[in-house]
Amino acid sequence: MDRKAEPVTGRQLQDVESAVSKRDFDRVTSSIDAMPSGQVVELLERLSVRDRALVYRMLPKDRASVVFERLDAPLQKELVVGLQDEDVAAIFAGLTPDDRARLVDELPATVATRLLRDLPDDERELTSVVLGYPERSIGRRMNPECVTTHPHLTAGESLQRIRHGLQRAETIYTIPVTDDSRKLVGVVGLRQVMGADPETPVAELMSEADSATATEPAEEAARRCAGLRLLAMPVVDHEDRLVGILTVDDALDILENAESEDQARISGSEPLRRPYLSTPVRTLVQARVVWLLVLAIGATLTVQVLEVFESTLEQMVVLSVFIPLLIGTGGNTGNQAATSITRALALGDVRPRDVAKVALRELRVGVSLGLLLGAAGFVIAGIIYGASIGAVIGLTLAAICTLAATVGGLMPLIARAIKVDPAVFSNPFITTFVDATGLVVYFFIARAILGLG
User: Residues in domain CBS (predicted)?
Assistant: First the structure.
Protein backbone atom coordinates (compact mmCIF):
# COMPACT_ATOMS: atom_id res chain seq x y z
CA MET A 1 0.00 0.00 0.00
CA ASP A 2 1.27 3.47 -0.87
CA ARG A 3 2.51 5.68 1.94
CA LYS A 4 0.54 8.83 2.68
CA ALA A 5 1.64 11.53 0.26
CA GLU A 6 3.08 14.73 1.69
CA PRO A 7 3.69 17.82 -0.45
CA VAL A 8 7.08 17.65 -2.11
CA THR A 9 9.42 20.26 -0.62
CA GLY A 10 11.45 22.55 -2.82
CA ARG A 11 14.67 21.06 -1.44
CA GLN A 12 13.56 17.49 -2.28
CA LEU A 13 12.73 18.48 -5.82
CA GLN A 14 16.01 20.30 -6.27
CA ASP A 15 17.96 17.32 -4.94
CA VAL A 16 16.28 14.83 -7.28
CA GLU A 17 16.39 17.18 -10.28
CA SER A 18 20.09 17.77 -9.61
CA ALA A 19 20.69 14.03 -9.42
CA VAL A 20 18.83 13.53 -12.72
CA SER A 21 20.82 16.24 -14.48
CA LYS A 22 24.09 14.70 -13.22
CA ARG A 23 22.87 11.22 -14.19
CA ASP A 24 23.48 10.04 -10.63
CA PHE A 25 21.12 7.09 -11.06
CA ASP A 26 21.83 5.50 -7.67
CA ARG A 27 20.81 8.70 -5.92
CA VAL A 28 17.72 9.09 -8.12
CA THR A 29 16.62 5.52 -7.41
CA SER A 30 17.06 5.86 -3.64
CA SER A 31 15.20 9.18 -3.64
CA ILE A 32 12.14 8.01 -5.57
CA ASP A 33 12.04 4.73 -3.62
CA ALA A 34 11.51 6.80 -0.46
CA MET A 35 8.73 8.87 -2.03
CA PRO A 36 5.03 7.96 -2.00
CA SER A 37 3.51 7.62 -5.47
CA GLY A 38 1.80 11.02 -5.17
CA GLN A 39 5.18 12.70 -4.71
CA VAL A 40 6.65 10.80 -7.65
CA VAL A 41 3.79 12.10 -9.82
CA GLU A 42 4.53 15.66 -8.71
CA LEU A 43 8.21 15.16 -9.48
CA LEU A 44 7.53 13.76 -12.98
CA GLU A 45 5.26 16.72 -13.76
CA ARG A 46 8.22 19.07 -13.24
CA LEU A 47 10.75 17.22 -15.39
CA SER A 48 11.49 17.53 -19.09
CA VAL A 49 10.11 14.91 -21.48
CA ARG A 50 13.44 13.10 -21.71
CA ASP A 51 14.17 13.15 -17.96
CA ARG A 52 10.59 12.12 -17.15
CA ALA A 53 10.93 8.94 -19.20
CA LEU A 54 14.33 8.27 -17.63
CA VAL A 55 13.03 8.56 -14.04
CA TYR A 56 9.88 6.61 -14.84
CA ARG A 57 11.94 3.63 -16.05
CA MET A 58 13.56 3.46 -12.60
CA LEU A 59 10.25 2.71 -10.89
CA PRO A 60 9.34 -0.88 -9.99
CA LYS A 61 6.61 -2.27 -12.26
CA ASP A 62 3.86 -2.21 -9.63
CA ARG A 63 4.57 1.41 -8.68
CA ALA A 64 5.01 2.40 -12.32
CA SER A 65 1.43 1.38 -13.08
CA VAL A 66 0.05 3.35 -10.13
CA VAL A 67 2.06 6.46 -11.06
CA PHE A 68 1.10 6.21 -14.74
CA GLU A 69 -2.63 6.17 -13.89
CA ARG A 70 -2.27 9.40 -11.89
CA LEU A 71 -0.58 11.38 -14.65
CA ASP A 72 -2.54 13.67 -16.95
CA ALA A 73 -3.30 12.18 -20.36
CA PRO A 74 -0.87 14.46 -22.29
CA LEU A 75 1.99 13.34 -20.03
CA GLN A 76 0.93 9.71 -20.42
CA LYS A 77 1.15 10.18 -24.18
CA GLU A 78 4.72 11.51 -23.94
CA LEU A 79 5.74 8.57 -21.78
CA VAL A 80 4.19 6.11 -24.22
CA VAL A 81 6.23 7.65 -27.03
CA GLY A 82 9.43 7.48 -24.95
CA LEU A 83 9.11 3.93 -23.56
CA GLN A 84 9.83 0.59 -25.15
CA ASP A 85 6.93 -1.19 -26.84
CA GLU A 86 6.80 -4.04 -24.34
CA ASP A 87 6.68 -1.60 -21.40
CA VAL A 88 3.90 0.38 -23.06
CA ALA A 89 1.84 -2.73 -23.79
CA ALA A 90 2.02 -3.85 -20.16
CA ILE A 91 1.05 -0.42 -18.83
CA PHE A 92 -1.78 -0.04 -21.34
CA ALA A 93 -3.21 -3.46 -20.46
CA GLY A 94 -3.15 -2.55 -16.76
CA LEU A 95 -5.32 0.55 -17.18
CA THR A 96 -9.07 0.54 -16.67
CA PRO A 97 -11.14 0.83 -19.90
CA ASP A 98 -12.06 4.49 -19.26
CA ASP A 99 -8.42 5.44 -18.61
CA ARG A 100 -7.42 3.62 -21.81
CA ALA A 101 -10.02 5.61 -23.74
CA ARG A 102 -8.60 8.90 -22.44
CA LEU A 103 -5.08 7.88 -23.44
CA VAL A 104 -6.22 6.68 -26.88
CA ASP A 105 -7.66 10.16 -27.53
CA GLU A 106 -4.17 11.63 -27.04
CA LEU A 107 -2.14 9.11 -29.03
CA PRO A 108 -1.46 9.08 -32.78
CA ALA A 109 -3.91 6.77 -34.56
CA THR A 110 -1.24 4.24 -35.55
CA VAL A 111 0.04 3.89 -31.97
CA ALA A 112 -3.47 3.66 -30.53
CA THR A 113 -4.49 1.02 -33.06
CA ARG A 114 -1.44 -1.09 -32.27
CA LEU A 115 -2.00 -0.91 -28.52
CA LEU A 116 -5.68 -1.82 -28.86
CA ARG A 117 -4.82 -4.71 -31.16
CA ASP A 118 -2.40 -6.16 -28.61
CA LEU A 119 -4.99 -6.18 -25.80
CA PRO A 120 -6.69 -9.43 -24.73
CA ASP A 121 -10.05 -9.87 -26.47
CA ASP A 122 -12.17 -9.14 -23.39
CA GLU A 123 -10.24 -5.99 -22.49
CA ARG A 124 -10.34 -4.74 -26.11
CA GLU A 125 -14.11 -5.25 -26.16
CA LEU A 126 -14.60 -3.29 -22.93
CA THR A 127 -12.41 -0.47 -24.19
CA SER A 128 -14.30 -0.37 -27.48
CA VAL A 129 -17.55 0.04 -25.57
CA VAL A 130 -16.21 3.19 -23.90
CA LEU A 131 -14.73 4.54 -27.15
CA GLY A 132 -18.11 4.09 -28.83
CA TYR A 133 -19.67 6.99 -26.93
CA PRO A 134 -19.28 10.70 -27.82
CA GLU A 135 -16.04 12.26 -26.61
CA ARG A 136 -17.50 14.53 -23.89
CA SER A 137 -20.24 12.15 -22.78
CA ILE A 138 -20.24 10.33 -19.46
CA GLY A 139 -20.15 7.05 -21.36
CA ARG A 140 -16.59 7.98 -22.35
CA ARG A 141 -15.61 8.39 -18.69
CA MET A 142 -17.47 5.45 -17.09
CA ASN A 143 -15.96 2.09 -16.22
CA PRO A 144 -17.92 -0.72 -17.88
CA GLU A 145 -16.55 -3.23 -15.35
CA CYS A 146 -18.74 -3.35 -12.26
CA VAL A 147 -20.16 -5.90 -9.86
CA THR A 148 -23.95 -6.27 -9.99
CA THR A 149 -26.57 -8.27 -8.18
CA HIS A 150 -30.24 -9.13 -8.73
CA PRO A 151 -33.36 -8.49 -6.63
CA HIS A 152 -34.10 -12.21 -6.18
CA LEU A 153 -30.61 -13.02 -4.87
CA THR A 154 -29.92 -13.06 -1.15
CA ALA A 155 -27.39 -10.97 0.73
CA GLY A 156 -25.16 -14.03 1.08
CA GLU A 157 -25.27 -14.77 -2.64
CA SER A 158 -24.54 -11.13 -3.40
CA LEU A 159 -21.46 -11.22 -1.17
CA GLN A 160 -20.20 -14.19 -3.16
CA ARG A 161 -20.63 -12.18 -6.39
CA ILE A 162 -18.78 -9.24 -4.83
CA ARG A 163 -15.85 -11.42 -3.75
CA HIS A 164 -15.71 -12.95 -7.22
CA GLY A 165 -15.51 -9.51 -8.86
CA LEU A 166 -13.05 -7.86 -6.48
CA GLN A 167 -10.12 -7.95 -8.89
CA ARG A 168 -11.87 -6.45 -11.91
CA ALA A 169 -14.30 -3.95 -10.34
CA GLU A 170 -13.23 -0.35 -9.75
CA THR A 171 -15.58 -0.03 -6.77
CA ILE A 172 -17.66 -2.44 -4.69
CA TYR A 173 -19.18 0.02 -2.21
CA THR A 174 -22.18 0.76 -4.43
CA ILE A 175 -23.68 -2.29 -6.15
CA PRO A 176 -26.14 -1.75 -9.03
CA VAL A 177 -29.16 -4.08 -8.90
CA THR A 178 -30.38 -5.27 -12.31
CA ASP A 179 -33.08 -7.59 -13.58
CA ASP A 180 -32.53 -10.51 -15.94
CA SER A 181 -32.42 -8.19 -18.98
CA ARG A 182 -29.75 -6.00 -17.26
CA LYS A 183 -32.18 -3.14 -16.66
CA LEU A 184 -31.28 -1.07 -13.61
CA VAL A 185 -33.87 -1.45 -10.84
CA GLY A 186 -31.96 -0.03 -7.86
CA VAL A 187 -28.71 0.06 -5.90
CA VAL A 188 -27.53 -1.50 -2.66
CA GLY A 189 -24.55 -0.55 -0.51
CA LEU A 190 -21.86 -2.98 0.57
CA ARG A 191 -22.52 -2.07 4.21
CA GLN A 192 -26.18 -3.06 3.83
CA VAL A 193 -25.30 -6.38 2.21
CA MET A 194 -22.70 -7.26 4.85
CA GLY A 195 -24.94 -6.21 7.73
CA ALA A 196 -28.03 -8.12 6.60
CA ASP A 197 -28.99 -11.68 7.34
CA PRO A 198 -27.44 -13.88 4.59
CA GLU A 199 -30.93 -15.10 3.62
CA THR A 200 -32.40 -11.60 3.18
CA PRO A 201 -33.40 -10.92 -0.48
CA VAL A 202 -31.66 -7.98 -2.11
CA ALA A 203 -35.10 -6.65 -3.05
CA GLU A 204 -35.62 -5.79 0.64
CA LEU A 205 -32.27 -4.01 0.92
CA MET A 206 -32.01 -2.04 -2.30
CA SER A 207 -33.03 1.60 -2.77
CA GLU A 208 -33.93 3.71 -5.79
CA ALA A 209 -30.98 4.41 -8.06
CA ASP A 210 -29.79 7.84 -9.17
CA SER A 211 -28.33 7.11 -12.59
CA ALA A 212 -26.85 8.88 -15.59
CA THR A 213 -27.54 8.25 -19.26
CA ALA A 214 -24.39 7.28 -21.15
CA THR A 215 -24.80 9.97 -23.81
CA GLU A 216 -25.38 12.92 -21.47
CA PRO A 217 -22.55 15.46 -20.96
CA ALA A 218 -19.88 14.20 -18.59
CA GLU A 219 -19.78 17.42 -16.58
CA GLU A 220 -23.53 17.34 -15.86
CA ALA A 221 -23.43 13.72 -14.70
CA ALA A 222 -20.31 14.31 -12.61
CA ARG A 223 -21.81 17.38 -10.95
CA ARG A 224 -24.94 15.41 -10.10
CA CYS A 225 -22.86 12.56 -8.67
CA ALA A 226 -20.84 14.96 -6.51
CA GLY A 227 -23.92 16.97 -5.51
CA LEU A 228 -25.76 13.86 -4.33
CA ARG A 229 -22.65 12.76 -2.38
CA LEU A 230 -22.64 9.39 -4.13
CA LEU A 231 -19.65 7.04 -3.99
CA ALA A 232 -20.64 5.76 -7.42
CA MET A 233 -23.42 6.38 -9.94
CA PRO A 234 -24.71 3.71 -12.36
CA VAL A 235 -24.63 4.64 -16.05
CA VAL A 236 -27.41 3.32 -18.29
CA ASP A 237 -28.35 3.40 -21.96
CA HIS A 238 -31.60 4.86 -23.34
CA GLU A 239 -33.43 1.65 -22.42
CA ASP A 240 -32.24 1.80 -18.79
CA ARG A 241 -29.85 -1.11 -19.26
CA LEU A 242 -26.73 -0.86 -17.12
CA VAL A 243 -23.62 -0.16 -19.19
CA GLY A 244 -21.13 0.98 -16.56
CA ILE A 245 -20.49 2.96 -13.41
CA LEU A 246 -19.08 6.39 -12.59
CA THR A 247 -17.03 6.54 -9.38
CA VAL A 248 -16.77 9.66 -7.26
CA ASP A 249 -13.02 10.05 -7.91
CA ASP A 250 -13.65 10.10 -11.66
CA ALA A 251 -16.52 12.56 -11.14
CA LEU A 252 -14.26 14.91 -9.16
CA ASP A 253 -11.58 14.61 -11.85
CA ILE A 254 -14.11 15.63 -14.50
CA LEU A 255 -15.22 18.62 -12.43
CA GLU A 256 -11.63 19.70 -11.77
CA ASN A 257 -10.88 19.66 -15.50
CA ALA A 258 -14.11 21.55 -16.27
CA GLU A 259 -13.26 24.17 -13.64
CA SER A 260 -9.77 24.57 -15.10
CA GLU A 261 -11.22 25.04 -18.59
CA ASP A 262 -13.71 27.66 -17.39
CA GLN A 263 -11.10 29.60 -15.45
CA ALA A 264 -8.70 29.60 -18.40
CA ARG A 265 -11.34 30.76 -20.87
CA ILE A 266 -12.76 33.38 -18.53
CA SER A 267 -9.27 34.89 -18.36
CA GLY A 268 -8.94 34.82 -22.16
CA SER A 269 -6.79 31.72 -22.65
CA GLU A 270 -7.13 28.10 -23.72
CA PRO A 271 -6.85 25.41 -21.02
CA LEU A 272 -3.42 23.74 -20.82
CA ARG A 273 -4.72 20.29 -19.76
CA ARG A 274 -1.36 19.55 -18.14
CA PRO A 275 0.84 20.92 -15.29
CA TYR A 276 2.31 24.36 -16.00
CA LEU A 277 5.99 23.45 -15.61
CA SER A 278 5.67 20.51 -18.01
CA THR A 279 3.97 22.64 -20.66
CA PRO A 280 6.21 23.72 -23.57
CA VAL A 281 6.55 27.47 -24.08
CA ARG A 282 5.15 27.06 -27.59
CA THR A 283 1.96 25.58 -26.12
CA LEU A 284 1.66 28.46 -23.63
CA VAL A 285 1.95 30.95 -26.48
CA GLN A 286 -0.62 29.11 -28.59
CA ALA A 287 -3.03 28.99 -25.64
CA ARG A 288 -2.94 32.77 -25.22
CA VAL A 289 -2.27 34.37 -28.58
CA VAL A 290 -5.65 33.68 -30.21
CA TRP A 291 -7.61 35.43 -27.50
CA LEU A 292 -5.15 38.32 -27.40
CA LEU A 293 -5.69 38.81 -31.12
CA VAL A 294 -9.48 38.63 -30.72
CA LEU A 295 -9.41 41.21 -27.93
CA ALA A 296 -7.01 43.41 -29.88
CA ILE A 297 -9.34 43.40 -32.88
CA GLY A 298 -12.27 44.17 -30.58
CA ALA A 299 -10.33 47.09 -29.12
CA THR A 300 -10.36 48.77 -32.54
CA LEU A 301 -14.00 49.64 -31.82
CA THR A 302 -12.80 51.68 -28.86
CA VAL A 303 -10.36 53.50 -31.13
CA GLN A 304 -13.18 54.23 -33.58
CA VAL A 305 -15.30 55.74 -30.77
CA LEU A 306 -12.41 57.95 -29.67
CA GLU A 307 -11.99 59.20 -33.23
CA VAL A 308 -15.68 60.09 -33.45
CA PHE A 309 -15.50 62.13 -30.23
CA GLU A 310 -12.06 63.60 -30.91
CA SER A 311 -13.42 67.15 -31.01
CA THR A 312 -15.06 66.68 -27.61
CA LEU A 313 -11.75 65.60 -26.12
CA GLU A 314 -9.97 68.60 -27.67
CA GLN A 315 -12.42 70.97 -25.97
CA MET A 316 -12.06 69.31 -22.55
CA VAL A 317 -8.76 67.40 -22.35
CA VAL A 318 -9.37 66.44 -18.73
CA LEU A 319 -12.04 63.98 -19.94
CA SER A 320 -9.29 61.71 -21.32
CA VAL A 321 -7.87 61.25 -17.81
CA PHE A 322 -10.93 59.24 -16.73
CA ILE A 323 -11.20 56.93 -19.76
CA PRO A 324 -9.10 54.08 -18.26
CA LEU A 325 -11.07 54.29 -15.00
CA LEU A 326 -14.46 54.15 -16.71
CA ILE A 327 -13.82 51.35 -19.18
CA GLY A 328 -11.90 49.38 -16.55
CA THR A 329 -14.79 49.66 -14.09
CA GLY A 330 -17.29 48.68 -16.78
CA GLY A 331 -15.25 45.66 -17.85
CA ASN A 332 -14.76 44.49 -14.27
CA THR A 333 -18.46 44.86 -13.49
CA GLY A 334 -19.48 42.93 -16.59
CA ASN A 335 -16.94 40.16 -15.96
CA GLN A 336 -18.09 39.81 -12.35
CA ALA A 337 -21.67 39.29 -13.52
CA ALA A 338 -20.64 36.90 -16.30
CA THR A 339 -18.51 34.82 -13.95
CA SER A 340 -21.35 34.56 -11.41
CA ILE A 341 -23.89 33.45 -14.04
CA THR A 342 -21.44 31.05 -15.72
CA ARG A 343 -20.89 29.42 -12.33
CA ALA A 344 -24.64 29.30 -11.68
CA LEU A 345 -25.18 27.65 -15.08
CA ALA A 346 -22.57 25.01 -14.32
CA LEU A 347 -24.22 24.24 -10.98
CA GLY A 348 -27.70 24.14 -12.51
CA ASP A 349 -28.87 27.10 -10.40
CA VAL A 350 -30.08 28.94 -13.51
CA ARG A 351 -31.08 27.90 -17.02
CA PRO A 352 -31.48 29.82 -20.30
CA ARG A 353 -35.23 30.09 -19.66
CA ASP A 354 -34.43 32.21 -16.56
CA VAL A 355 -33.16 35.03 -18.74
CA ALA A 356 -35.82 37.54 -17.57
CA LYS A 357 -35.18 36.83 -13.88
CA VAL A 358 -31.43 37.10 -14.34
CA ALA A 359 -31.73 40.33 -16.34
CA LEU A 360 -33.90 41.92 -13.63
CA ARG A 361 -31.57 40.85 -10.81
CA GLU A 362 -28.43 42.04 -12.58
CA LEU A 363 -30.15 45.30 -13.51
CA ARG A 364 -30.86 45.91 -9.82
CA VAL A 365 -27.31 44.91 -8.87
CA GLY A 366 -25.89 47.19 -11.57
CA VAL A 367 -27.98 50.15 -10.44
CA SER A 368 -26.91 49.62 -6.82
CA LEU A 369 -23.24 49.32 -7.73
CA GLY A 370 -23.52 52.29 -10.07
CA LEU A 371 -25.04 54.52 -7.41
CA LEU A 372 -22.35 53.59 -4.89
CA LEU A 373 -19.42 53.98 -7.29
CA GLY A 374 -21.01 57.00 -8.96
CA ALA A 375 -21.37 58.77 -5.63
CA ALA A 376 -17.73 58.08 -4.81
CA GLY A 377 -16.66 59.26 -8.28
CA PHE A 378 -18.74 62.44 -7.98
CA VAL A 379 -17.18 63.37 -4.64
CA ILE A 380 -13.57 62.60 -5.57
CA ALA A 381 -13.63 64.05 -9.10
CA GLY A 382 -15.69 67.03 -7.92
CA ILE A 383 -13.15 67.95 -5.24
CA ILE A 384 -10.24 67.80 -7.70
CA TYR A 385 -11.77 69.00 -10.99
CA GLY A 386 -14.97 70.79 -10.02
CA ALA A 387 -18.64 69.88 -9.59
CA SER A 388 -19.46 69.64 -13.31
CA ILE A 389 -16.69 67.11 -14.00
CA GLY A 390 -17.70 65.25 -10.83
CA ALA A 391 -21.28 65.04 -12.11
CA VAL A 392 -20.10 63.65 -15.47
CA ILE A 393 -17.99 60.95 -13.82
CA GLY A 394 -20.65 60.07 -11.26
CA LEU A 395 -23.45 59.70 -13.83
CA THR A 396 -21.22 57.81 -16.24
CA LEU A 397 -20.18 55.31 -13.58
CA ALA A 398 -23.82 54.76 -12.65
CA ALA A 399 -24.81 54.19 -16.29
CA ILE A 400 -21.83 51.99 -17.17
CA CYS A 401 -22.21 49.75 -14.11
CA THR A 402 -25.90 49.24 -14.83
CA LEU A 403 -25.25 48.46 -18.49
CA ALA A 404 -22.24 46.21 -17.83
CA ALA A 405 -23.90 44.15 -15.09
CA THR A 406 -27.02 43.56 -17.20
CA VAL A 407 -25.10 42.60 -20.34
CA GLY A 408 -22.61 40.51 -18.34
CA GLY A 409 -25.45 38.58 -16.73
CA LEU A 410 -27.22 37.91 -20.03
CA MET A 411 -24.24 36.83 -22.15
CA PRO A 412 -23.66 33.40 -20.53
CA LEU A 413 -27.37 32.58 -20.90
CA ILE A 414 -27.35 33.59 -24.56
CA ALA A 415 -24.20 31.53 -25.10
CA ARG A 416 -25.76 28.44 -23.53
CA ALA A 417 -28.93 28.94 -25.63
CA ILE A 418 -26.93 28.96 -28.87
CA LYS A 419 -24.81 25.95 -27.78
CA VAL A 420 -21.58 27.90 -27.18
CA ASP A 421 -19.36 27.61 -24.11
CA PRO A 422 -20.40 30.56 -21.87
CA ALA A 423 -16.84 31.02 -20.60
CA VAL A 424 -15.55 31.37 -24.17
CA PHE A 425 -18.27 33.64 -25.45
CA SER A 426 -18.94 35.99 -22.54
CA ASN A 427 -15.80 37.87 -21.55
CA PRO A 428 -14.38 38.82 -24.98
CA PHE A 429 -17.81 40.10 -25.99
CA ILE A 430 -18.31 41.95 -22.71
CA THR A 431 -14.91 43.60 -22.88
CA THR A 432 -15.47 44.82 -26.43
CA PHE A 433 -19.09 45.87 -25.91
CA VAL A 434 -18.63 47.66 -22.60
CA ASP A 435 -15.50 49.53 -23.72
CA ALA A 436 -17.15 50.88 -26.84
CA THR A 437 -20.64 51.62 -25.49
CA GLY A 438 -19.24 52.92 -22.20
CA LEU A 439 -17.25 55.58 -24.04
CA VAL A 440 -20.29 56.56 -26.10
CA VAL A 441 -22.33 56.98 -22.90
CA TYR A 442 -19.46 58.94 -21.31
CA PHE A 443 -19.13 61.45 -24.12
CA PHE A 444 -22.88 61.97 -24.49
CA ILE A 445 -23.18 62.70 -20.75
CA ALA A 446 -20.15 65.03 -20.94
CA ARG A 447 -21.65 66.92 -23.89
CA ALA A 448 -24.99 67.31 -22.14
CA ILE A 449 -23.59 68.51 -18.79
CA LEU A 450 -20.63 70.55 -20.03
CA GLY A 451 -22.36 71.97 -23.10
CA LEU A 452 -19.70 70.77 -25.51
CA GLY A 453 -20.19 70.52 -29.25
Answer: 142-204, 205-261
- Half-sphere exposure in the Cβ direction for 109 (13 Å, CA): 0
Task: State how far Cα 228 lies from the chain centre.
Answer: 19
CATH superfamily of the domain spanning 280-450? SLC41 divalent cation transporters, integral membrane domain (1.10.357.20)
Contact 186, 151 (CB under 8 A): yes
What are the extents of the domains in the chain?
10-136, 155-259, 280-450
Q: Is 80 exceeded by the pLDDT of residue 302?
A: no
- What amino acid occupies position 45? E
Burial class (CB in 10 A: 0-12, 13-18, 19+), 313: middle
Please give the helix or strand (H or E) that residue 102 lies within, else none: helix 97-106
% of the chain beyond a pLDDT of 90: 33
Ramachandran sector of residue 268 (left: φ over 0; alpha: ψ -120 to 50; beta: rest): left
Please give the model's pTM, rounded to 2 decimal places: 0.67
Q: Taking residues 22-27, report their average pLDDT.
A: 76
Residue 363, Cβ neighbours under 10 Å: how many? 16
- As a whole number of angstroms, the distance between CA 35 and CA 44 comes to 12
76-85, 94-103, 369-378: least confident range: 76-85
CA distance 412 to 426: 6
- Interval 155-200: pLDDT, tens: 999 999 999 888 788 888 999 999 999 999 999 999 999 999 999 9
In order of 319, 375, 377, 400, 442, the CA distances from 381 in angstroms are 11, 10, 6, 17, 14
Contact indicator for 299, 435 with CB cutoff of 8 Å: yes
CB-based contacts of 364: which residues, under 8 Å, 6+ apart? none
The burial of 138, by beta-carbon neighbours within 10 Å (0-12 exposed, 13-18 middle, 19 or more buried), is given as: buried
Which CATH number is 155-259's, of 3.40.190.10, 3.30.420.10, 3.10.580.10, 3.40.309.10?
Answer: 3.10.580.10
> Does CATH place domain 10-136 in 1.25.60.10?
yes
